[in-house]
UniProtKB/TrEMBL annotation:
InterPro entries: HAD-like_sf, HAD-SF_hydro_IA, HAD_sf, Pyr-5-nucltdase. SUPFAM superfamilies: HAD-like (SSF56784). It comes from the Bacteria. This is Pyrimidine 5'-nucleotidase.
Length: 245
């Protein structure tokens, strides 16, 4: 067990896994995205009313896994421009909420930790620093770094995961993906990774999820077959180690 723990690598999601992004950050991001999408549609001479913009943002998220990919494919936007505008906040630190003692929790978990997030680099770094978690991650992999053959391939892309594991020299059986999004866990399990589903920041209200531009999640009372462990919080992972490996 000691030898295995030294090989163990955790791939941690950020939003709604390590902190409560649904509280204030996601609503702000959605407003920022809507403003950006409205400008793009207006410049193209298309309808840019609230209903049309909402529908576009949600449809791109559901179809491509990230609104950004739909905007690139259908409107040829520059990724850096979209990510910068979507993550503008008056006071980001005031919007961050998370469980207590996260640094101690991560320190207690054996093995190496990598941040794997569909959020941009600057935002992810700011959140981790505010939470005091940056020193616990050996590497940060933000959405800008998720490229396969030069194309952006964020989670749940299996080719991106394969490329990451190969680049880091990791074996799939030594890796555990910790996520709030079941679609991402499903893809990881198909490759042979361990999977842990964090549920405390999720809403079971499908209407609220749709308005937020989120895919509908599996009911919290049901653990999908591709999820090894369902926990309410990251703080519960240590007690579930025996079930993950």
């Amino acid at each position: 067990m000691a030898r295995h723990n030294r090989r163990l690598t955790w791939l941690f999601d950020l939003d709604n896994t390590l902190h409560d992004a649904s509280h204030a950050i996601f609503p702000a991001i959605n407003l920022n995205m809507n403003a950006y999408i409205a400008r793009v549609l207006q410049d193209c001479g298309q309808a840019c009313d609230t209903a049309t913009v909402d529908a576009a943002r949600i449809a791109y998220w559901q179809r491509y896994g990230a609104t950004l990919l739909g905007m690139i494919k259908h409107h040829q936007v520059k990724p850096d421009d979209f990510l910068r505008e979507a993550h503008r906040f008056d006071d980001l630190t005031a919007m961050i909420r998370a469980e207590r003692n996260l640094a101690r929790i991560l320190h207690r978990l054996p093995g190496r930790k990598i941040l794997l997030t569909n959020a941009p680099r600057g935002y992810a770094r700011a959140v981790l620093r505010h939470l005091g978690l940056h020193r616990h991650f050996a590497r940060h992999v933000p959405i800008e770094a998720m490229r396969v053959h030069g194309q952006l391939r964020p989670k749940p892309s299996k080719p991106m995961l394969r490329k990451l594991l190969a680049a880091e020299g990791l074996r799939v059986r030594d890796c555990i993906l910790v996520e709030d999004t079941v679609e991402n866990l499903k893809g990881a399990k198909a490759l042979g990774l361990g999977t842990a589903w964090v549920t405390q920041y999720l809403s079971t209200d499908s209407t609220r999820q749709a308005l937020a531009g989120m895919r509908t999640t599996v009911r919290r009372t049901k653990r999908p077959v591709y999820v090894d462990v369902k926990v309410q919080s990251v703080g519960q992972l240590f007690r579930q180690l025996h079930r993950l490996r």
